[in-house]
Write a structure and sequence with these properties.
The complex is a heterodimer of chains A (about 120) and B (about 110). Chain A is built from no helices and ten strands. By secondary structure, chain A is mostly beta strands. Chain B has no helices and 13 strands. In chain B, strands 2, 6, 7, 8, 11, 12 and 13 form a seven-stranded mixed sheet that branches. Chain B has a four-stranded antiparallel sheet with strand order 1-3-10-9, with no helix packed on it. Chain B has a two-stranded antiparallel sheet with strand order 4-5. Classes of the chains: A mainly beta (about 120), B mainly beta (about 110). Chains A and B meet through strand 5 of A and strand 6, strand 7 and strand 12 of B.
Chain lengths: ~120, ~110
């Protein structure tokens, strides 16, 4: 069964940094594009970032561009999100979600269980 | 950015009755070159991550019950649950992938009347 497991969430002060990880299993990770999607408490879904299978193409939402960096290590079947200059409004559950195999963003399937990031002083 | 607007925000439907959720995009998500609408639907139950239901506006994901169907084209789309079951209580989201800046609708909460 395809599995995505996020880790690295926690409590951080405004202006601080955090690095999220997503461990993938049971599929050929290096063939798939990947994404981060977040959900603030009690709110809807917001796409954060996309990375193609070879890391050649990367996109960010306007709300995080310049502060967050997505990366991946295909040898370790892992996806990452480095989050810098964190703000209160970055508080959310962050989901890792698989994309397609065409180096173009599409739908998300499947999703991990998520990791909670809380930005507060 | 393409803005996705869902309606209603919530609806209550009796068991066995039809539930209809609407999604409107601020610009067309239809690609004429491949005749496809770049729209997906998700279901999110409380305490769970979202689950893909439908992509290309009307293609049901493997394993999704056939009471779920998607329709529409261009800027106006509909998710229909033909006969609501108790396990369908959830929030439903539409998402466009026409633009590389992906966006979701605000969600529609479906409850039992």
């Amino acid at each position: 069964e395809v599995q995505l497991v996020e880790s690295g969430g926690g409590l951080v002060q405004p202006g601080g940094s955090l690095r999220l990880s997503c461990a993938a299993s049971a599929f050929t990770f290096s063939s798939y594009d990947m994404n981060w999607v977040r959900q603030a408490p009690g709110k809807g879904l917001e796409w954060v970032s996309y990375i193609s299978s070879s890391s050649n193409t990367i996109y960010y939402a306007d709300s995080v561009r310049g502060r967050f960096t997505i990366s991946r290590d295909n040898a370790k079947n892992s996806l990452y999100l480095q989050m810098n200059r964190l703000r209160d409004e970055d508080t959310a559950v962050y989901y890792c979600a698989r994309g397609g195999t065409t180096a173009r963003p599409i739908w998300f399937d499947p999703w991990g269980q998520g990791t909670l990031v809380t930005v507060s002083s | 950015d393409i803005v996705m607007t869902q309606s209603p925000d919530s609806l209550a439907v009796s068991l066995g009755e039809r539930a209809t959720i609407n999604c409107k995009s601020s610009q067309s998500v239809f690609y004429g070159s491949n005749n496809k609408n770049y729209l997906a639907w998700y279901q999110q139950k409380p305490g769970q991550p979202p689950k893909l239901l439908i992509y290309w506006a009307s293609t049901r994901e493997s394993g999704v019950p056939d009471r779920f169907s998607g329709s529409g084209s261009g800027t106006d789309f509909t998710l229909t649950i033909s006969s609501l079951q108790a396990e369908d209580v959830a929030v439903y989201y539409c998402q466009q992938y026409y633009s590389t800046l992906l966006t979701f609708g605000g969600g529609t909460k479906v409850e039992i009347k």
